[in-house]
Design brief:
2 domains; 7-stranded mixed sheet; 10 helices; globular
Length: 279
Amino acid sequence: MTNTRKHAGDAVSLVYQYRLPLSTHTLTYLADLLRRHLKAIRSRWRTLPPGKTAVIVLAVLRHDQRLADMAGGNDISATTVRRWRDELIGLLAAKAPRLDRALKKIARRGGEAVLIDGTLIPTQRRTGKANRPNYSGKHHRHGLHVLALTDEKGRLIWISAARPGRTHDITAARRDHLLAHLRAAGLGALADLGFLGLDDDPDNPVVVTGFKATRARKLTPGQKDANRALAAGRVPVERGFAHLKNWRILTKLRTDPARATHLFRALLVLTNIEAITGD
C-alpha cells in the first residue's frame, strides 16, 4: 500500500491573471457608484475596496467567471462575491432609462425613428412545469425573451423586462405598450416581420415591418426591393445586440430568471458606457 500522506501538503491554490477588455472609465464609473452607495448606507468597512470589488464583478459579468473561482483567487467566500454582484447589478439597473424617457430623449436630439428587435437569451434548463414556458419552439432551446430598442446608429437605448422564452415579439411589444409610447414621442420604428400586425393604422403607420409573402400571394419586385432596403436599415440593431451579448454571462444564464430583468438592464448601462468611451 502506497503512503500518499506526504503529498497532502503539496496542494496549493493556483491563481492566474487575465485582462478585462474594458475601459478604465467603466471601472471608475462602477467603483464610484459603489462608493456613493456605501456612503449612503453608512457602511464603514468592506473586505476589499470598491475598486477591487468592481473588478471582480466586471470579471463575473464579462467573462462569466465562476463565483467560487473569483472567491478563491481573492481570499473571500463565494457568498460574498454573489452578494457584491447582486448589489452592483441592482445599482446599475436603477440607472437604466425608462421607455418613455428614452424615446423622448431621441426625439429631442432630432431623431425620427428607432430600431426594434427581440432576442432569446439562453438559460440553463431547469426541471419542473414552472420552466416549460421558457422553452422557445422557434429556437428549440430554453431561454428568456427580451425586446430592445436602438437608435439609428445601433446604440441601445432601452431593454424590456425578461419574459418566458415562448413569448412572441409582437406579444411582448403589446404588453409594453410600445406603439402608444412611439406615437406619444412622435417617432417611427423599423422592425422585422415578427412585429407584423402591431400597427393598426395603415394610413399613418408608426412601425414599418416590410412585406410578407404567402403561398397564394408572391411578392412583387417592388416589395422585394422594399424588404431589402428595410433589412439594410435594421443592421444596426443586430450590432446593438452583439455588443450586449459580449457580456459572456449571457452565453447561458445560470441565475434565477426572476432576477434576469435587473441583469439585462445593468448590462445595458455598462454597454452604453463602453460605447461612449469607444466613441
